[in-house]
Amino acid sequence: MLKKLSILLLAFVSLPALADSSHAYANAVLEALQKKGLLSEHDVADIKQHAQQAELQASKPSVAKKTSVKSAVNNLVVATKKNVNKASPNIKFWGLAQPRYTFVPSKNGRQGTNSFTLRRARLGFTGFASDNVAFRFQYDASNEVVGLSNAQKLLDAWVSLKHFDDSLGSITVGQQFALGYTRRPHKSASVERKFTEVLSPGAVGRARGLTIRKGNMGLPETNSKGYFGNRVHYALGLFNSPDLSLNNDNNDLLFSAAFALRPNGISPSDDEYQFKDRPLAYSVGAAYSTSLDSVTLDTKFQPNGVELDNEWLSVFADVQAHHWWLWASWAEFKSDATGGLAVNTQGDNTNALSSSALTLGLSRAYLLNSEDMGWAWALQYQHVDNEHPSRTAFFRPLTGKSTDELARGMNQGSVYQAIFTWQFDENLRLINELAYYDPTDGKFNYPSFISQLQLSF
Q1: Which domain holds residue 419?
Q2: Where is the signal peptide (predicted)?
Q3: pLDDT interval class at 2 (50, 70, 90)
Q4: 403-407 contacts: CB < 8 A, separation 24 or more?
Q5: Which CATH number is 229's domain given?
C-alpha cells in the first residue's frame, strides 16, 4: 500500500499544472521516501529527471500538449514503480516494554505480593520481501514467569502471501494468532489478558499452521478489505493442535473458522482508548475450533491413552463512537473424554471438562491537546467458570508458580476492574488498575493494584 501511495503521490505532484517552479513540495516527498529506504539517492535523481522531462513535454505547443503530458506522466509512473520495486525491502522494527508494580495485600494467613516485574519486553520486525510477500517476527524476552515453554517466547513468525487479497484473501504460514480470538487482543485497556482470550486455542493466543484470512478482522496477519465494502470478513485455519499443556505439538490438527460483520464498513481499532476522534464503528463476530488432544499430565487421564475431543467457541461485539468504546466477549472451551475420565480443577473425576468466561468493558478517553496527550478511564467486569487444570494459572494477578500464589488462583467467580490511564504521547502510557476478585469456589476475596508503564517504539 505504501508503494502504491508513493507512486500516486509522485505522479500528482509532478503534474505541470500543480507543481511550482521550485518543485519544493515534490523534492520534499522524494527526500522523505529516500529516508524511509523506499528509494535510493540514485532513484531520486532518476525520478527528478523524468519529472523534468514531463514538464518540458507539457510546455510544447498545444496541438501535441495533451498527448505528450499523458505519455510523460505514464512514463513517470512506470519509472517510479520500477524504482520503488527494486528498492530495499520495506522493513519496520518495533519494540514494547512494560515494567509494572503489583500489590496484593496479605489476607487470611496468605502472604501478599509487593513487587516489580517486567510484564513484557518484546522486539519485532515486519515488512515486505516483495510486492506480495509480507513477513512478521516478534520475540518476548521478559520471562516474567519461570518455566514458560518456547512457544511463549517466539510469539509471531510467519510469511503471508498477498497475491489473492482482492479475491480469496491472504494466505499466511507460520506461528500466528489462532482464529479463536476473532481479532487481535485489545491494546491496553487492562494489564492482563482477558479471561475470554485465555479460553482460546494455542499458547498466548498463537498456534503454528496455515490460514486464509479475508478482511482486517485478521490483523496483523492481513490488512485486506472484507467483502461488500469491508462489511463481511472470514478466516479459515489449519494448525498444530494445542494439547492442554499448551505446547501445540500433540500430532493432531486443529481446524478453525471465524466470521465477522462490519455493518457500516468501518472497522474498529484494537485500542479501547480512542484519544483520536473516530466515527461510529461496530462489529460482531464468532469463531469455532475443534481438535483432538493427546495424553497430558495435567488432565490425569484414566485410563492412559484416552483422547479428549476439544471444542472452542467465542463470540464478540464492539461499539466505538468518537471517544467512547464498548466491548463484550464470551468464550467456551469443552473437552469430552469419551471412553475415559479426566480430573477437573476441583479434583473430581469426570468424562467432560467445560469452561466459560465473559468480559464486558467500557472506556472514555479525553484529549488534552491537539495531538496525542490525554487521559482515559475504563471499567471492566469479568466472570469465569473454569474446569480445565491447564488454564488455572491465568486467573490471578500474581506471577510465578509458588504454592501460595496458586492458592489465590480463581477458577470460579467475578472480577471488577477500575482503570485509569494517562497517555503522555502516542508511544508512552501509564496504566493504573484497581481490581477486586470475588471467587465463588470457596476461596477468599481480595483486592489488587497494578501500575504498569507501557512504552512502544
Answers
A1: 94-456
A2: 1-19
A3: very low
A4: 404/110, 404/111, 405/113, 407/110, 407/443
A5: 2.40.160.10
Give the C-alpha separation, 341 to 349, whole Å: 6
- Mean pLDDT, residues 179-194 taken together: 74
Q: Are residues 192 and 261 in the same domain?
A: yes
Same domain, 79 and 102: no
Provide, for the chain, the percentages of residues in helix, strand and coil under a 3-state DSSP scheme, each rounded to the nearest 5. 20, 45, 35
Contacts of 454 by beta carbon, 8 Å cutoff, 6+ apart: 96, 97, 98, 188, 428, 429, 430, 431
Q: How far apart are CA 326 and CA 362, in angstroms?
A: 5
pLDDT tens string 306-352: 677 889 999 999 999 999 999 999 999 998 887 777 778 888 888 88
Same domain, 12 and 137: no
Count Cβ neighbours within 10 Å for each residue of 393-413 and write b for 16 or more, e otherwise: bbbbbbbeeeeebeebbbbbb
Residues 256 and 308 grouped into a single domain: yes
Considering the domain architecture, whether residues 190 and 248 belong to the same structural domain is answered as: yes
CA distances from 98 to 301, 375, 426, 455 (A): 39, 18, 15, 6
Instruction: Map residue 209 onto helix, strand or coil.
Output: strand
**What CA–CA distance (Å, rounded) separates 100 from 424?**
17
pTM over 0.85: no
Q: What is the helix (H) or strand (E) element at residue 47, kind and residue range?
A: helix 41-58
